[in-house]
Amino acid sequence: MSKLIGLTGGIATGKSLVSDYLNEQGIPIIDADLITHQVEAKGTAGLRALAEVFGDQMIQTNGELDRQALGKIVFNDPSKLKRLVRVIDPFIRAEIFKQIDHYFDAPLVVLDAPTLYENGYAHLVDQVIVVYCDPVTQLHRLMKRNKLSIVDATKRIKNQWSLQTKCDLADTIIYNSDSIPETLAQVKTWLASQTK
């Protein structure tokens, strides 16, 4: 692997738009959100670990994780959110390393992780791209996408590092407050700079 790129941003800033575009260009994507869902799936050791900490009421009758119930608990109590991360992160981390090994021969690989900085993954990557949008746009997108009240959406945003802090640490910032073509034009420019 010649380069591992960290792709991050805030919740509902448009990171998936950038990730999907890069994937369409044939770049392997290690998707931390997808991995999280995999390690918390029905019958997994990750789900059992969550149930031990947060109780069996987190498991629905069909054996799946009740994400809504868990979200209500952890996004209303920062100490419980930290506890959630401590419980599930070893499972996520193991799968991320497995996928990094799998894509070892690829010239460019993207680690798509919304909490790249918060969970200590930034040191693994060669450069970091942050997808940014203005705070009002972010709030409206999150409320619409997740059907959240302004209070609940604001809590979720505040549980992540500020976008400004992430931008200050980034190697590249993709601005995503305007149209999709304008966002993708920036991604294309960045990608061209990597393949020179």
From TrEMBL:
Which UniProt keywords are listed?
ATP-binding, Coenzyme A biosynthesis, Cytoplasm, Kinase, Nucleotide-binding, Transferase
**Subcellular location, record wording:** Cytoplasm
Q: State the superkingdom.
A: Bacteria
A single Gene Ontology MF term assigned here is: dephospho-CoA kinase activity
Reaction catalysed by this enzyme: 3'-dephospho-CoA + ATP = ADP + CoA + H(+)
Enzyme Commission code: 2.7.1.24
Family to which the UniProt record says this protein belongs? Belongs to the CoaE family.
Q: What is this protein called?
A: Dephospho-CoA kinase
